[in-house]
Amino acid sequence: MQALRNIWFLALATCTEGIRHRALWAIVCLAALLTMANLGVTTLYSWDLGKVSVEFGLSAVAFTGLLLVFFLGMKILADDLERSRIFMLLSRPVSIWHYLTGKFLGLAMILLLTTIILGLSAALSMHYVLWQYPAYVPPNFSWHTYVMALACQWLSLVVVLALSVLCFSFASQLFVALLLAVFSYLVGQNMELLRRVVVENAHAGVLTGQENLVVALSWIFPNLSLFDKKYAAAYGMAFSGQEFALLCLYGISYSALLIYLATLLFKRKELA
Amino acid sequence: MSRRLTTHLIIGLALIVFYALSYNALLQQRREINTPGHHASGIWNLPPVVLFALAGEFKGLLADYLTLEAGAQLGTELVRNPEGGFLAVKKQHDWPGIHRLFVASQTLDPSFAQTYIVAQGWLPWEADMVKETQNILQVAAKNRPWDWQPNHTMGFNTYYFLNQPGEAGKLFLEAAKTPNAPAFLPILGARLAQKGGETQTAIVIMKSMLADKNPEEPGYTDMLDRLRALEGVREIEQASGRYEKTVGRKPSSLTELTASGLLTAIPPNPYNLDYCLDTAGIIYFDKPDCLNPAPGGENQ
Predict the structure, then answer these.
(1) Does residue A59 contact residue A41 with C-beta atoms inside 8 Å?
(2) Which of A254, B23, B44, B85 is 20 to 30 Å from B5 by CA-CA measure?
(3) By C-alpha distance, which of A143, A138, A222 is closest to A186?
């Protein structure tokens, strides 16, 4: 019970710290601009305006979320070390796993808040475009799919956040952690592509015959492309509730595993 | 003015002049090589797998950008007139490069309508790239099952550029299967398929389409009439084939065919016109004077 209280307290404190951070508001302003740009960009096209609008809106959410994870999230974690606040926390009955889990949940809450704000503002601009150009609304477009795609986007960001926390837990410097996290994100985005190229293609260059290695890598790195539902939302292609539930389970289980690993590695980290 | 300030001013001025000269030289050089070549390089030249990997989760957005880039490379260009104002000049297009742009855009987002519509608007007409356009349209047709236009456009190209009415008819009929396809498509498709010697295919497709349609739907009677006309053509075609086997040549007229006893009677034509057999052995249901074609083309 005490553990849960500690985690909750840390999560709330991290979330509050994030909201007070100037970087967050700068990113939110950028996102608002991107959302407004949606209205202008869409009119550059003559067909499939609805698709362009939905894709642009969801991409704005993804882009802003990534900025938040890589810059704000890692900065908040690094600040605790640089300003020695972590010692104050760890000297209390707060263990490292409470600390990392609390921080992770707090940052995930910031991401959720941002996704909701951006998702709503993107939805408003989309609604305007779809209302203005009804002939270009994708035939099976549904707001339900849009909300599910938005939720998948958030889950994807949470997984990237867990990756960043893991990188932070063992990297000696913030820059190295950031580099590793960005690299893992890029690999994660292309894991499905790599797996398909090697497993389903007899001419995969240097990777020919390395199916087992690629399959092993695909279990180690996150398969982030599975969370990418922008295409489905943009063309009104419904995806099943079962797939959504499985994605949620995958995202949660993978993040939990990463945070656990991060806890183990953080214990060995030279804090002073 | 102090000596130090003068030195700073001289150094600053020298740097500004150096910057202005080098930038101006660069602009001048770009103006001189203002050929399609300066568009030839770009992310769209990368192999599809690399492009896919680079785009990450922003594939749709990159596809949107590439289509805009294609649009910017097409059309005319405005250049400043030395006497004031602007002049519209025709660009020299790098068609292989523009084609690669479309392919790259479609690799990233195979369902995007803007890609195949703009490609169709330019490539077959200006670049003589019919085969390439057909490939783009084929990808669009596969990935846009709700859209009748890719198959319809492919059918148009097959008829207009490749002069293959039979194949064109099949594509029109394929397009007609799409929900909300316009009612004229099956009629036109059947007409072209029959013209290209694909009467049996046209009948089968028309029958399968009619089976899914409600007789109350608009266009149902027109389709039924076209089916009956095609069935009449097929009956004559089969008799003509038997005649050729027996006599060793094609019949010269329908009267000759009926007189041979191989066709007991001319089948009814729902359009209340006479069937016509031309010198090549093609049977028409809507052109009673096919032996003396009137100027002005054919009717539908």
Answers:
(1) no
(2) B23
(3) A222
Out of A124-128, A136-140, A141-145, A148-152, give the one with best mean pLDDT: A148-152
Residues of B contacting chain A (CB within 8 angstroms): 49, 52-53, 56-61, 64, 67-68, 109, 111-114, 117, 146
Report the alpha-carbon angle A49-A53-A54, nearest 5. Answer: 120
> Is A137 a domain residue?
yes
Gyration radius of chain B over CA positions: 30
| A55 vs B49, B60, B117: nearest CB | B60
Inform me whether the pLDDT recorded for B2 exceeds 90: no
Q: Residue A78 domain-assigned?
A: yes
Token output for A219: 């279990």
Distance in Å from the first CA to the final CA of chain A: 30
**Which residues of chain A are at the B interface, by a Cβ-Cβ cutoff of 8 Å?**
41, 44-48, 51-52, 55-56, 59, 62-63, 139-140, 156, 186, 189-190, 193, 197, 224-225, 228, 230-231, 234-235
Question: Which amino acid would we find at residue A173?
Answer: Q
CA distances to A228, A235, B144, B179 from A139, in Å:
20, 8, 10, 11
Task: Sketch the domain layout of chain B as residue ranges.
Answer: 39-70+93-141
